[in-house]
Amino acid sequence: MFAHIGKQVIKNINSKVCAQCIYSIQPVSNDVLKCSLFGQKNIVTGEIHYDSGYTARKDVMMCGQDARYYEARLGETVPTNDKPIV
């Protein structure tokens, strides 16, 4: 729990956002965002099941909290400081 310090406290304010990465597969309707870097191929059908962005960011062996493999889409910006945009 955070102590009230008179300022807004937002975790991960400067973290890279999966939805702005070139490897993200944008969700269709109610689906979740997927990452095209991680998944598994069905050896019978050839269908590829991609892992969710959430799974990739939670696993340090994948992209992890630091977004190790993140590459910004053209026109997207990456946070560069720890000051929130107001």
SSE topology:
Blueprint: E1 24-25, E2 34-41, E3 48-52, H1 53-58
Antiparallel strand pairs: 1-2, 2-3
Given the structure, what is the number of helices? 1
Distance between the termini: 23 Å
Largest sheet: 3 strands, antiparallel
Biggest sheet strand order reads 1-2-3
Q: Tell how many strands the DSSP assignment holds.
A: 3
Label the structural class.
mainly beta
The shape is: elongated
Q: Helical content, roughly?
A: under 10%
N to C succession of SSEs: EEEH
Portion of residues in beta strands equals 15-25%
Radius of gyration, in angstroms, nearest whole number: 16 Å
Explain what the structure shows.
This protein has 86 residues and is mostly beta strands. Helices cover 7% and strands 17% of the residues. It has one helix at residues 53-58; strands at 24-25, 34-41, 48-52. It has a 3-stranded antiparallel sheet with strand order 1-2-3. The radius of gyration is 16 Å and the shape is elongated.
Brief overview, please?
This protein has 86 residues and is mostly beta strands. Helix content is 7%, strand content 17%. The chain has one helix spanning 53-58, and strands spanning 24-25, 34-41, 48-52.
